[in-house]
Design goal:
The structure holds two protein chains of two kinds.
Chain A (H helix, E strand, L loop, with lengths): L4 H6 L7 E2 L2 E2 L1 E2 L10 H14 L9 H20 L8 E4 L2 H16 L5 E5 L8 H10 L2 E5 L12 H4 L3 E7 L11 H10 L3 E5 L11 H4 L3 E5 L10 E5 L1 H6 L10 E5 L2 E4 L13 H17 L1 H23 L3 E3 L11 E6 L4 H9 L3 E2 L1 E3 L4 H7 L4 E5 L6 H14 L4
Parallel strand pairs in A: 3-15, 5-6, 5-7, 7-8, 8-9
Antiparallel strand pairs in A: 1-2, 4-10, 9-10, 11-12, 13-14, 14-17, 16-17
Chain B lengths: L3 H4 L2 H8 L12 E7 L4 E10 L2 E10 L2 H14 L4 H14 L31 H17 L3
Antiparallel strand pairs in B: 1-2, 2-3
The chains are: A alpha/beta, B alpha+beta.
Chain lengths: 408, 147
């Protein structure tokens, strides 16, 4: 079933905002997504009528808050087909979720000379924590290069995986839009005796996710890119691995007992949820999950394939060699996130000109500087489309791009 | 709202298209590197200071029209001037960009000349960091030169 985008747009109040008498063209959802009314209402209703601490008080208000909070955990487990709800851990963002896995697992399992396999298309959140382990533990990093159309070059995957203890990779590039073959990569990791860590920040909001079909070991993503509030990240891990993983942050909620000479940890998931979490935001994320499920993740994916087809064809037809769109040219192999170079105009200047038409794009290195160096740019402009974007908006992007040539 | 004509003045675009003093200087000149972590812009400023005078200055790197033209105009404004005067120009410029942090008074008598064209950048707060990148890097280079 295809998405009724006109009706979806009615659900997002900000999309009706006029800035300087012109409509908003929001093409920055790979950065952060807009919020539907149901999520705004959930946040507001809880703040107005239900706000209370979770997990630690006996009164009814607190019990209700705890139920709502845990309801999101259960809903998320179903959303990504996790075997058990307590394998779903809330963090403050996806970056913290990755740091939790990488640093906790790395410190417990890696020693001098141990090797990790990464890819050239990783976000800094899946690079810098490993660099920190390089400094701390003397581990080594190995990298999968890219093909000319921005896919992983898997021709030497088995040899690159030899002796590797962990393989950590993105499910979808936030710069190139490339969708990686997660299931195949997890299988290859396991065959080599490595664990598979999947940064699914860009993929979870845009397509169905099944962590069991992937056969991944750890998966991380964020609320704010999937129509939920900011301030919440998610880590899913296999129960047996989470049980063995040392805690990351210490403090309230994560302990079973604390004595003068030490502590013991709480059971999952509390073991990894030290301190008061983003209670209202987690609860509102539950509404985002429900909203996405009602629309159907497969339908959202289909819409984005249609958008990708339209964007790739229309921009190339209109601008020819004046535009270079990075990443795969086959819409089936990519999400609707497009980094591009246009007529030699610096991305920062380009985004400034597009802003005159309220066309919101990101300009910069997208927290992927190693990839930028490989692309031979220190920045790109990036337009990213989501479930509420239309072909008309792609045309408005193209019109706005044309106007940039009047200045530069 | 502020229009693009406030930002992209002709003199700015001229320095962007035809940068002045672009290049490098050999030792004994010194250099410093600056980054704008927001957008990935990179710049390197070379200064040759002799007897308290900035006898030569060059820049290279890559960035947007504002960062590149600001650096180009800066090199034109400071070349051949005594270090004290250069620092006063930097202070006046940063003050115009609303990012002058220290308490000492700005020399209001200084004429920034073409640099005044960059005043419009203040209406686009995100771009202030672009305009000041070369200037902050110049201060680092002067520090390296022992000034």
């Amino acid at each position: 079933m295809s998405l009724d985008v006109a009706s979806i747009r009615e659900d997002f109040p900000v999309l009706h905002r006029m800035i300087n008498d012109k409509p908003l063209v929001y093409l920055d959802s790979a950065n952060t997504s807009q919020k539907p009314q149901v999520v705004i209402d959930a946040l507001s209703n809880f703040m107005s009528n239900g706000y209370a601490p979770i997990n630690r008080s006996a009164y009814q208000l607190a019990a209700e808050a705890t139920d709502l909070f845990e309801g999101t955990r259960t809903a998320l487990a179903k959303f990504i087909n996790a075997p058990k709800a307590h394998e779903v851990i809330f963090t403050k963002n996806a970056t913290e979720a990755l740091n939790l896995v990488i640093l906790s697992w790395g410190r417990a399992n890696m020693k001098v000379g141990d090797t990790v396999l990464l890819t050239h298309m990783e976000h800094h959140a899946n690079i810098v924590p490993w660099h920190m382990l390089v400094a701390e533990r003397g581990i080594q990093l190995r990298w999968i290069p890219l093909t000319s159309d921005g896919q992983l070059d898997l021709s030497n995957l088995d040899s690159l995986l030899q002796g590797v203890k962990a393989f950590s990779f993105t499910a979808m590039s936030n710069v190139l839009g490339t969708i990686n073959p997660v299931q195949q990569l997890c299988a290859a990791a396991h065959k080599a005796g490595a664990i598979a860590i999947v940064d699914a920040c860009q993929s979870v909001p845009h397509q169905p996710t099944d962590v069991q079909a992937w056969d991944a070991d750890f998966v991380t993503f964020s609320s704010h890119k999937m129509c939920g509030p900011s301030g919440v990240g998610v880590l899913w891990g296999r129960e047996v691995l989470l049980e063995a993983l040392p805690p990351f942050l210490g403090g309230g909620n994560m302990i079973a007992d604390v004595r003068l000479d030490g502590f013991t940890t709480a059971d999952l998931p509390a073991k990894f949820e030290a301190g008061t979490p983003a209670i209202a935001e987690v609860i509102a994320l539950g509404s985002a999950v429900k909203y996405l499920e009602n629309l159907g993740m497969a339908n959202i994916r289909r819409h984005e394939i249609e958008m990708s087809t339209y964007v790739l064809n229309s921009l190339t037809d209109r601008f020819g060699d004046d535009i270079t769109i990075h990443g795969p040219t086959n819409p089936e192999l990519r999400g609707a996130t497009f980094s591009f170079a246009f007529r030699g105009i610096h991305p920062h200047d380009l985004s400034q000109v597009l802003d005159q038409s309220n066309v919101c794009v990101r300009a910069g290195h997208h927290c992927a500087k190693p990839l930028m160096r490989i692309l031979g740019a220190n920045a790109t402009a990036r337009a990213s489309f989501y479930l509420y974007n239309t072909q008309q908006e792609a045309d408005m992007l193209a019109d706005a791009l044309d106007s940039a040539s009047d200045i530069f | 709202m502020a229009g693009l004509e406030d930002l992209y003045r002709e003199i700015i675009l001229d320095h962007y298209r035809t940068p002045r003093n672009r290049g490098e200087l050999d030792a004994p000149a010194v250099s410093a590197e600056g980054h704008n972590p927001l957008c990935g812009d990179e710049i390197r400023i070379f200064v040759d200071v002799r007897d308290g005078i900035v006898t030569d200055v060059r820049f290279n790197g890559s960035g947007c029209s504002i960062s590149q033209s600001s650096a180009s105009m800066m090199t034109s404004a400071i070349k051949g001037k005594p270090v004290d005067q250069v620092k006063a120009i930097v202070k006046k410029f940063k003050s115009m960009m609303t990012v002058d942090e220290d308490e000492s008074p700005v020399d209001e008598s200084l004429n920034l000349g073409d640099l005044e064209a960059l005043q419009g950048v203040v209406k686009f707060p995100v771009r202030i960091k672009c305009a000041t990148l070369g200037w902050n890097t110049l201060l680092d280079a002067l520090t390296t030169a022992g000034q």
